[in-house]
Design a protein that fits this description.
It contains 22 helices and 17 strands. The chain is of the alpha/beta class. The protein folds into three domains: about 120 residues, Chitobiase/beta-hexosaminidase domain 2-like (Chitobiase, domain 2); about 250 residues, Glycosidases (TIM Barrel); about 130 residues, no CATH class. The protein has an eight-stranded parallel sheet. A seven-stranded mixed sheet has the order 1-7-5-6-4-2-3, with helices on one face. Strands 11-12 form a two-stranded antiparallel ribbon. Helix 11 links the parallel strand 15 and strand 16. The protein starts with a strand and ends with a helix.
């Protein structure tokens, strides 16, 4: 970006001129610019194709220039004569318009004169939202999310699916889940395409199949139909498909046959992560004879062949194959491995190098750090997202997929994830330019539409309450862990990860401060009232989680704790929180899954009897 000095004052009675032999190619982009100018500069500029435009009437020119080298790149110039966006195609034109929109939000009708040359670091920049544990968003929520992500220049979206697509031959699996229907996927796919987002199909296909395998019709396909002991502890329910059962592949093939025609994307994420019970049940002898990694890879390749039948490129989570690095070179070179990790120090460097050496294309897949947190983990999220971007670039990753999970009840409200979305979008577009970005200010301006900066700072600070605690809790906050598990488990955890009374007191003090700051917000977003309610709910949940942490620490005799409400008061508070959880949930999500989410909190309620 080069600043030229001076400003351009937006004037009425100008035109948006499309310089192209086929103006319809960028009509949507022109309309987006038209809406942005109306909202932020108070002018209505009509759209006109190139041709006989009187001198001085062109306020904004959208030029399609195939000579530009980057398919998603653009140039944006603001000078004394007006605004010009030049791009090789509609993708680049759209991203140029989104940058213009960001400038209009900041400067209104008086824009700085400048020239920007821009294109992304990663050609694929995605977000994956968990819709299986346990929230399935309403279509309104999904459309609004697509608009948000498009404005952040995200160009892929995945909906993580275990059992939440309405397979017509398998209604027992999704009966209580309020699933996505085929018609809804078709609608969402079309909505995404118009905003230059590719809706990538996603269906876990090996592990994480509990929602299928608990039913009698599918239990015989399980690796361990009655559960088993794993490195994660005891599984009471089946989890992974048995790779040696022919019925497993038949089921997978049938699901793909029905699911995939609803998507225009030629990519397909088949999951296949965390098969931690593989070799603990029906395939035990085979795994002992040939190796668990070999058995895993053999079934993965069968899934690969099913995907190829549909003319798709298979994506799969790379965690299991990375446990058997000698097998990585045996992967087909037309798959995409998804290298995921969610702590700030995840080894994207080492794992990226391994995939690169083998010639296997890969994405880096960090996360928003929102799940198991109640209010986020800001510093961890920023570190994790930047780590993925920098090392993905270093080792030639072809994509960046920012994941947003819903483990253990999906209790965090959606706005808790906005910080991760925005930060991930920035560092995946250009890590160098966004490494030192004031994320609180950017979040306020471009997500919460709060020019005061308070909303973004509040979101950052809520997500950093966990920094009050010195001990590290992996993939969760201490209070998120405490609220999501029985007190007996919390006490056991604290035997290895002690929490001091001063840490509890500091965290509670910070919650109180942020609740007072929340009351001062003046958001301009359409859903401003709901966002404030969701953050208020998150803070109440965090406070209750901290109280449970203090109760467990006191009972374990680890340290002296500050005053804790009585069990009767905690019971009353949690009941009120459960009622609010239901109301907040239904404001953006379908009812399916709510019962399971509430059950996690009701389990915590039992500790107060």
């Amino acid at each position: 970006m080069e600043l030229a000095g001076g400003v351009l004052r937006i004037q009425p009675d100008k035109l948006i001129v499309i310089e192209s032999s086929r103006p319809a190619q960028v009509l949507f982009e022109a309309q987006e610019a038209q809406r942005a100018l109306s909202r932020h500069a108070g002018v209505t500029w009509h759209i006109h194709g190139s041709g006989a435009v009187p001198e001085g009437r062109a306020g904004l020119t959208l030029q399609l220039d195939p000579a530009q080298s980057h398919s998603q790149g653009y140039s944006l110039e603001i000078n004394a004569l007006g605004i010009r966006i030049s791009a090789p195609d509609a993708n680049g034109a759209f991203y140029g318009v989104m940058t213009l929109l960001q400038l209009l939000r900041q400067y209104g009708d008086t824009l700085p004169r400048l020239r920007i040359e821009d294109y992304p670091d990663f050609p694929a920049r995605g977000v994956m939202l968990d819709i299986s544990r346990d929230k399935v968003p309403t279509m309104k929520t999904l459309f609004e999310l697509v608009d948000l992500l498009a404005g952040l220049k995200i160009n892929q979206l995945q909906l993580y699916t275990e059992h939440t697509f309405a397979y017509q031959r398998h209604p027992v699996v999704w009966a209580n889940a309020s699933p996505m229907t085929g018609e809804e996927i078709l609608q969402l796919d079309a909505y995404c395409r118009s905003r230059h987002i590719e809706l990538v199909p996603n269906q876990n296909s090996f592990g994480h199949m509990t929602r299928w395998l608990i039913h009698d019709a599918y239990r015989p396909l399980a690796e361990a139909p009655d559960g088993c002991d794993t490195r994660w502890g005891r599984f009471d329910k089946p989890f992974t498909l048995c790779p040696g059962d022919p019925g497993s592949l038949r089921l997978i093939g049938e699901l793909y046959e029905e699911l995939l025609p609803h998507f225009t994307s030629r990519l397909f994420n088949v999951g296949c992560d965390e098969t931690v019970d593989l070799g603990q049940g029906r395939s035990k002898a085979d795994c002992e004879a040939r190796g668990t990694g070999v058995v895993y890879l053999e079934f993965l390749l069968k899934i690969y062949n099913e995907v190829r039948k549909h003319g798709r490129t298979m994506q799969f989570w790379g965690d299991i194959i990375m446990e058997h690095p000698e097998l990585v070179p045996q992967l087909p070179k037309d798959v995409i491995a998804l290298e995921w990790g969610y702590e700030h120090d995840h080894p994207f460097e080492a794992h990226g190098a391994r995939f690169a050496e083998s010639g296997v294309p890969f994405y880096v897949c960090p996360g928003t750090s929102s799940w198991n947190s109640l209010g986020g983990r800001t510093d961890n999220a920023i570190g994790n997202l930047l780590n993925a971007a920098e090392n993905g670039l270093k080792h030639g990753a072809i994509g960046y997929l920012n994941t947003d999970w819903g483990d253990n009840g999906h209790h965090q409200p959606l706005p808790v994830s906005y910080l991760g979305y925005a930060c991930g979008a920035g560092v995946s577009w250009c890590a160098a330019s966004n490494r030192e970005t004031d994320i609180a200010r950017a979040l306020s301006l471009h997500v919460f539409f709060d020019r005061s900066g308070r909303a973004g700072r509040l979101a950052c600070d809520i997500g950093n309450i966990y920094r009050s605690f010195e001990q590290r809790f992996f993939n969760c906050t201490p209070y998120g862990f405490a609220l999501g598990r029985p007190l007996a488990q919390v006490r056991e955890r604290l035997s290895n990860t002690p929490v001091a009374g001063r840490e509890i007191a500091q965290a509670l003090k910070e919650v109180g401060r942020l609740e007072r700051e929340l009351d001062k917000l003046d958001l301009q977003a359409i859903d401003a009232g709901l966002i404030q309610r969701e953050f208020a709910f998150a803070l109440r949940m965090i406070r209750h989680g901290i109280h449970r942490l203090a109760l467990a620490a006191r009972d374990a005799g680890k340290s002296r704790q500050p005053a804790i409400p009585s069990t009767a008061e905690l019971r009353q508070d949690l009941r009120a929180l459960i009622a609010e959880h239901k109301r907040v949930w239904l404001a953006r999500n379908r009812p399916g899954g709510l019962k399971d989410s509430v059950a996690v909190l009701e389990r915590a309620l039992k500790d107060y009897r």
